[in-house]
Every structure is written in C-alpha cells, then in structure tokens.
C-alpha cells in the first residue's frame, strides 16, 4: 500500500541544472510503501498523471514518529489526520499513543 505524503510538480530529472525553456514539469508523488520482504517502510517517488496528483492531494498522509511511553520503542506512523493518532496503539505492547507524539518532517 502506498501512503503519499507529498504531491508536487517537479522536473523529470532533478539534479540536472541545465534546463531548457521547453523543459516541462511533471506531477510527482512522494511517500512511503511498506516492503513486506524487508519488513520496513521504503520511500518512493513516482511520476503520475494530473488526475492522480489531484486524487493524492486529497488523500495525503502525515508522517509521525511516535515514542511508546511504555516500552520506549519508536514507530513511524502515517495518518491522514492528527486526530486519528488517538486511535493508534503500539504494535509491541498495545499501549495507546494518545499522549506522546511529535510531528516529524511534515515536508519531505
Ligand atoms: Zn509499546
């Protein structure tokens, strides 16, 4: 499942500073995808059509780093709205994350 955290118009080849005037910008989505094989979140960047860009703009996720008050482990969570954090639980000890969380790199 892809969790998009950022939608922006970018040049196809970033890092190439030699832009001609005809160079077009394309919509890109940046986000995280869970890798089942390596069991961790992987960042991705992908070019999409403008229709998809609008869809993802309305369905963006926010990234949070949550520290569990009980077992002291830190987890990365992606939620659409901050209020959803209240419902999240620590995957390790099932403690609620309600109180302790901090926003982490909103703009990636
Ligand atoms: Zn815990």
Largest sheet, in brief, is: 3 strands, antiparallel
Terminal-residue CA separation: 19 Å
**Backbone shape:** elongated
> How many discrete structural domains?
2
Order of helices and strands: EEEHEEE
User: What ligands does this structure carry?
Assistant: zinc ion
Using the CA coordinates, give the radius of gyration: 17 Å
Number of strands: 6
Outline the structure in words:
- This protein is mostly beta strands and 108 residues long.
- The chain contains one helix and six strands.
- The radius of gyration is 17 Å and the shape is elongated.
- The C terminus is likely disordered.
- The structure holds zinc ion.
Please describe the structure with a list of short key phrases separated by commas or semicolons:
binds zinc ion; mainly beta; 3-stranded antiparallel beta sheet; elongated; 2 domains
């Amino acid at each position: 499942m892809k969790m998009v955290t950022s939608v922006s118009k970018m040049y196809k080849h970033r890092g190439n500073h030699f832009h001609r005037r005809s160079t077009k910008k394309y919509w890109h989505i940046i986000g995280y995808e869970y890798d089942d094989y390596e069991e961790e979140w992987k960042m991705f960047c992908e070019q999409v059509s403008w229709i998809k860009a609008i869809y993802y703009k309305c369905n963006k996720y926010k990234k949070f780093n949550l520290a569990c008050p009980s077992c002291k482990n830190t987890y990365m969570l992606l939620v659409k709205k901050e209020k959803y954090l209240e419902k999240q639980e620590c995957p390790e000890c099932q403690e609620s994350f309600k109180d302790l969380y901090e926003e982490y790199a909103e703009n990636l």
